[in-house]
Amino acid sequence: MSKGKILGKNEVSSRRTVRFRYRRVLLTSIATLAPALPISLVVASQPAFAAAKTNFVGKWNISGGYLGITFRSENRATGACAGVTASSLYHIIGCPQTGNRYAFTITEGATYRSRNVGTIAGNKITGSFNDSNGTSVPYTGVR
User: Fold this and answer.
1) Comparing C-alpha atoms, which of 95, 91, 130 is closest to residue 107?
2) Model's pTM, two decimal places?
3) pLDDT at 124
4) Which stretch of DSSP H or E encloses residue 24?
5) Rounded to whole angstroms, how far apart are CA atoms 126 and 143?
6) From CA 45, how far away is CA 55, in angstroms rounded?
7) Contacts of 72 (CB under 8 A, 6+ apart)
8) Rounded Cα distance, 141 and 59, in Å
9) Average pLDDT over the chain, rounded to whole?
């Protein structure tokens, strides 16, 4: 501290004043930032809300002249779903989702499979399918 030097009254007061000033600035900063903390936590957690699975249930009109699809039921926890295309010969099975990404399969009989993948945002889907006939087509759809 003073290395053997005796401090005068003004020097001691000056050191105390500087120390208390730093503490006051620190406490003022904490008091100012503390109310903003809950708001920052809500903003930081927005990606968690965005990752929530979306609702597929409803009738979807698909671009390019392809059959529309109707999801009749869906279990977002398990990825199970049920639905049909505009032709009742085709059935929709399996609808796993991760955030706004989806996948489902359309079947017809024992051999035909159409694997669909894409993204969903509100009432719009953007995706593509690859089927057992070797067809691969991008599409969009609206509900």
Assistant:
1) 91
2) 0.59
3) 93
4) helix 9-33
5) 12
6) 21
7) 57, 82, 83, 84
8) 10
9) 76
Retrieve residue 90's tokens: 């085709």
| Residues counted in the chain | 143
**For residue 130, pLDDT beyond 90:** yes
Name the residue with tokens 């120390």.
Answer: 19
Q: Work out the pLDDT band at 139, boundaries 50, 70, 90.
A: very high
DSSP-derived letter for residue 5 is: P
Write a three-state SS string for 29-71: HHHHHHHHHHHHHHHHCHHHHHCCCCCCCEEEEECCCCCCEEE
Which residue's structure tokens are 């929709």?
A: 92
The letter for the amino acid at 88 is S
Tokens describing residue 15: 């050191």
Q: What is the pLDDT of residues 6-57, one digit of tens each?
A: 766 666 566 666 666 666 765 665 666 556 555 544 444 444 444 556 778 8
Longest alpha-carbon distance in the chain = 99
